[in-house]
Amino acid sequence: MADVIVHIGRFQPPTLAHLEIIKKAQSLAKKVIVIVGSAKKARSVCNPWTSRERIEMLRSTKEIDHKRLIIAPIPDSNYDFSWWLAEVEKIVKQNTNSDDSISVIGYKKDDTSYYLDYFPKWEFVEMPKLYSGLSATQVRERLFENNYVSHVTDEIGKWLNNWIVNNNVIYSTLKEEYHYIKKYKDMWKSTPFTPVFVTTDAIVICKENILLIRRGNNPGKNLYAMPGGFLEQTEFITDCAIRKLRGKTGIDVDNNALKKSLSFVKVFDDPFRDQMRRNIAHVHLFNLELSKFPNVKLSDGASDVRWMSIKNLDELQDKFFGDHYQIIKNVLMF
Predict the structure, then answer these.
(1) DSSP bridge pairs for 5
(2) pLDDT of res. 43
(3) pTM attached to this predicted model
(4) Which of 4, 69, 124, 149 is least buried, going by the fewest C-beta atoms within 10 A?
């Protein structure tokens, strides 16, 4: 028997396949460490449950030995994979002895399982396809389509049904967002090629504060975001960034001053960064060296616009839309 086996996943929610992997790991090792990804993220159709809620679901099931199970959450890091790998290894180190043999267990279902190849010091225990390739995506789809809970343990099914009843506003909001995204995707089904969209976003810094909006519409309604939007056919990318910045925030700085304050542009192209479409973002950093904050005002689909201290962003990372927090952190390195 091995000393420790590590299982990494998002568990949105924990499915029968996830539980089979954990049970297999416990049959092979003295201790199993389950690392729950996508911690500290805002709720979305892709990530409906917090890490605390997913840990509760895992702990509710009677089919695993909880005395030999350690569960630890970890945030995503879309644009700093080295940091994420180091955090995984840190969690494992904190829960093992220096002479323990360590393995990692998983099923390589598609390109999203690439991380399993990045732990060369740990033996890889490969699992076969379970339940015809069951994924948590299928469970979420059934839940948002018709309130139907399937392919989970009885205990987790009960937990999910109770969660719907006790969090009906959250559930209804996510269900509305699910159907909005589905309808949007259906619009593009007849195109001969899957479209790729180009967007721009603006990080505007003034007096150690950042200018943020709160989204007024789905997806991500009321979540914090960088001001931005879609590139038009006849438009230069930086012109788009300034146009969308002014349109979203009404910032009282003329175009020439904004262009002079532009520090750099960086592309963010995680293929899965947008739930609705393939979206490549060109993020512009504007450093305004002004003695006071320029005026801003609500407009163009935002529910709020405000200057916020950069020092406070960590406390709000689960209130950001999509990968916007990760992008801001990558650009500003705070």
Answers:
(1) 32, 103
(2) 97
(3) 0.91
(4) 124
53, 136: one domain: yes
Nearest to 127 by CA among 30, 5, 243, 12: 5
Cα-based angle 160, 13, 270 (whole degrees, multiple of 5)? 140
- Residues 212-238 have a mean pLDDT of 95
In a domain, 180, yes or no: no
- Full DSSP string of 183-239: HHHHHTTTSSS--EEEEEEEEEEETTEEEEEEE-SSSSTT-EE-SEEEPPTT--HHH
Report residue 248 as tokens: 């979203």
Maximum separation of any 2 CA atoms in the chain, in Å:
68
Residue in the block written with tokens 């020092």: 311
Q: Give the list of residues 6+ apart from residue 197 with CB closer than 8 angstroms, or none.
A: 230, 274, 277, 278, 279, 280
Q: What is the CATH number of the domain that holds 257?
A: 3.90.79.10
Which string of b and e fits 249-259 if b means at least 16 CB within 10 Å? bbbebeeeebe
To which residue do tokens 């925030």 refer? 249
Give tens-digit pLDDT for 108-143: 887 777 888 899 999 999 999 999 989 999 999 999
What is the sign, positive or negative, of the torsion defined by CA atoms of 246, 231, 334, 315? positive
Instruction: Report CA dihedral (167, 168, 169, 173) to the nearest 10 degrees.
Output: 110
In a domain, 310, yes or no: yes
